[in-house]
Amino acid sequence: MDSELKEEIPVHEEFILCGGVETQVLKCGPWTDLFNDQSVKRPKLLIFIIPGEYKSLDEETFYSNAQEIKDIYGLNGQIEHKLAFLRTHVPKDMKLVLIGHSIGSYFTLQMLKRVPELLVIRAFLLFPTIERMSESPNGRIATPLLCWFRYVLYVTGYLLLKPCPEKIKSLLIRRCLQLMNLENEFSPLNVLEPFCLANAAYLGGQEMMEVVKRDDETIKEHLCKLTFYYGTIDPWCPKEYYEDIKKDFPEGDIRLCEKNIPHAFITHFNQEVANMIADSLKDDLSKM
């Protein structure tokens, strides 16, 4: 069954210039250009997935004066980067489903706040880090590392990884993926690039300092199209965060995982989460 699905739904990788930087995009489905494709095969709906971590290709940045985003590797820059992609690659009349994981959930809320005219029919916020990040169990550990000792991490990563041959990096990554029983369809070599790690640490430091107060105003405005999914064993957004938001928005679609799925669900529980999203979308899709 899995092999049949992979054949029916093609996945391809593209690198595009977006917001002044070269950006990796993974596209699922038989489409390439939503603006110029007017055939019957043109999709009526785009599912836009915003992952919970940032990836950079390498140390080279390509700038375009017309699209350059200030501080693109920071928290605000990453939000504007996602909006820039939608403005330049997705028609305004395209209906959207947004799926944000971890800090991607914060990006999703900010996108709805900044561009409320987006035709979003449903937004899923999975294990959402949308408040009090530095106060969470993991946040209390990450905050001093990312905010106070970030430059030590930069130097250490550069000294250890910069001289490391590409073959060794590739071997390490493939071995880790094998231990986690993950397939490697696209090369993730950039994960061990010092520049990529520095960007991740820089963004992480901003998350700890700026993701503090829950944006109740935006949640209230878009509550009818939001689905929150919290974990019971999530050290980034503990169960008390779920209880607080459930109390403040009792009419909202705010769920607590009953399967002990971890925050980093992609490693072993991706199918369970995908099934949950698919089931939740049935009513929305039936109305299209």
How would you describe this structure to a colleague?
- It is found in: Endoplasmic reticulum; Lipid droplet.
- Belongs to the AB hydrolase superfamily. LDAH family.
- GO terms for molecular function: sterol ester esterase activity.
- Keywords: Endoplasmic reticulum, Hydrolase, Lipid droplet.
- The chain is α/β, with parallel strands linked by helices and 288 residues long.
- It folds into two domains: 11-132 and 213-287, 3-Layer(aba) Sandwich (Rossmann fold); 135-207, no CATH class.
- It is built from ten helices and seven strands.
- It has a five-stranded parallel sheet with strand order 3-4-5-6-7, with helices on both faces. Strands 1-2 form a two-stranded antiparallel ribbon.
- Strand 4, helix 3 and strand 5 form a beta-alpha-beta unit.
- The two termini are 27 Å apart.
CATH fold type of the largest domain: Rossmann fold
* CATH class descriptor of the largest domain: Alpha Beta
Task: Output the CATH homologous superfamily of the largest domain.
Answer: Alpha/Beta hydrolase fold, catalytic domain
Major sheet attributes = 5 strands, parallel
CATH architecture of the largest domain: 3-Layer(aba) Sandwich
User: What integer is the average pLDDT?
Assistant: 83
Strand content: 15-25%
The gyration radius over C-alpha positions equals 19 Å
Q: Work out the number of β strands.
A: 7
Subcellular location: Endoplasmic reticulum; Lipid droplet
Enzyme class: hydrolase
Protein name: Lipid droplet-associated hydrolase
Keywords: Endoplasmic reticulum, Hydrolase, Lipid droplet
